[in-house]
Amino acid sequence: MTWRKIMVPVIAQSGAEALERVSAVSLDAGFALGRMIEAHVEVCCLAAGLHEPHEHLFAGVPGSAIELLTNEIDKRNAEGIAQARELFARSAADYAPTRDVKPGPSSGFSAEIVEIIGRPAAAAAERARLSDAVVLAISADSPSHAYERMVRGVLTEGGRPLLVVPVAHQALSLDRVALAWNGSLEAARAASLAMPLIERAEALTVIAVQEDGPISPDVEAFADYLRWHGKTPDCVSLDCGPHAVGEVLQEEAVKAGAGILVMGAYTRSRLSRIVLGGATGAVLHEPRLPVVMAD
């Protein structure tokens, strides 16, 4: 089992320093992971378009005005795409992937950049379904509402694991991988989807956190599951108490020396995720280490 294709979505928008920063970190992490596991990295440059406007939104607007607006959007898209291609070229120069390769099971580490016109959140989620995993950098201060929507869209609608990387991270490491376990469907799904990284890890730490709810995680049974994959993990059981689950998980993972944390996303109810945000919201707001999430 392996990840053969990794997607790195980038929003085409020039002149936005914060967005350029997270895009650069996303590419760096994506290329680093691709080289580490010998996968193909597809950088998707997402540009918003206005080629099929809804008639009711432009009723009474002169055709010349619509044309001017469309031309301006096309101009900004071109500038944003040029910036994305420059970032891609820098990462390619640093990591030296093979270029212009055809799809195949043993192509090794390779990379390409593609351009997609459409709403970034929807386009990124749809494209994610054609990859094994998605890599995105996260900043405590979101660079834009469009970027935030894209992150959540990929996580909830992409159907693939999402590796979120803090903007200030140093380097990806598989020396030790931590797994958050609460016995939920989402936690099980995250562990299964992240198995290519888990099997490559030098060491594992399972962090079982007891939350308010009916699930009492059987840590030893989960450890046995990992032993079937040739891994004998260290296990830690914690009572969250009054502390936020996301903070506790990340603190314990950092304390264990983990380079990556694997966790299920949105293990609470739909209403709770909207009202409280839960562990997922805490990690997406301010990740302290790279985290693999799956919904």
- Helix content class: 40-55%
Distance between the termini: 20 Å
**What is the helix tally?**
10
Strand content: 15-25%
Written as H for each helix and E for each strand, in order along the chain, the element string is EHEHEEHEHEEHHEHEHEHHE
Tertiary shape:
globular
Count of beta strands: 11
What CATH first level of the largest domain would be assigned?
Alpha Beta
Q: In which order are the strands of the major sheet placed?
A: 3-4-2-1-5-6-11-10-7-8-9
Indicate the CATH topology of the largest domain: Rossmann fold
Give the key terms.
alpha/beta, 11 strands, Rossmann fold, globular, 11-stranded mixed β-sheet, 295 residues
Structural write-up:
With 295 residues, the chain is of the alpha/beta class. The protein has 2 domains: 5-166, HUPs (Rossmann fold), CATH 3.40.50.620; 176-294, 3-Layer(aba) Sandwich (Rossmann fold), CATH 3.40.50.620. It contains 10 helices and 11 strands. Helix content is 42%, strand content 22%. It starts with a strand and ends with a strand. The model is unreliable at 51-56 and 268-277 (pLDDT under 50). The chain has helices at 17-37, 63-95, 120-128, 145-157, 185-193, 195-200, 219-227, 245-255, 270-275, 278-285; strands spanning 5-11, 40-47, 98-99, 110-117, 133-138, 162-166, 176-181, 203-210, 234-239, 260-264, 291-294. An 11-stranded mixed sheet has the order 3-4-2-1-5-6-11-10-7-8-9, sandwiched between helices.
